[in-house]
Here is the input.
Amino acid sequence: MGPSAPRPATGLTSQLRAATRGTHDHVDGAFPEGLDSPTAYVRYLQAILPLAQWLHHAWQPDWEALTCWHAPARPQQLRADLARMGAAPGAFQSSGGAISAAEWLGASYVMEGSAMGARLLARDLDRLQAAHPHVADARSFIDSHLADPRRWGRFRQVLDALPEADAVAALRGARRGFGLVEHQLDAMEAPA
Ligand code: HEM
Here is the structure.
């Protein structure tokens, strides 16, 4: 059935969560003590940057209905935060090629959903900056990511309302998006 005959309420968010649970557990496991050191925070920023870059590059201006989910400032915020932490962006592969709006939304699920974990991690930063004051000047990404607590609920509604025909592309986007984060973490050596 084509996009002209959409079926309502796919509940895609839970499908994407189930499909990426193992990857999330792996990513979560790369921060066993949360953001308890400047090094851990740098790894976190470096892990998210490839996903932010991909979302930025793959965005197409004619996806007008999705404009509010496009956050063009994110890659630059991440790079600026890394620079303030005295770190480089890190080398990463770009995930090139044009993608559909549904695949882009699936990848955006990874970014938007990460705000939930980020809420906990921001509390780690509150503690970390007592000992490392420069951390307070390196929070532009995470603070703007968390600025609107209702954003995730609105995003879920958009995802859950996608027609069934878009589910496969959205799942692919979520797997690729999470894969970028995971790959970046695996490529960086975790501190002993
Ligand atoms: C670094 C990259 C990370 C990414 C891309 C990411 C992504 C996500 C996504 C997509 C969700 C939404 C799941 C859903 O409800 O559908 C989520 C939820 C969550 N994440 Fe992460 N996450 C990351 C790191 C972390 C870390 C390090 C922690 C450890 C504190 C964490 C803790 C959580 C928690 C507690 C939730 C909420 C789970 C729930 O309430 O069901 N995340 N994350």
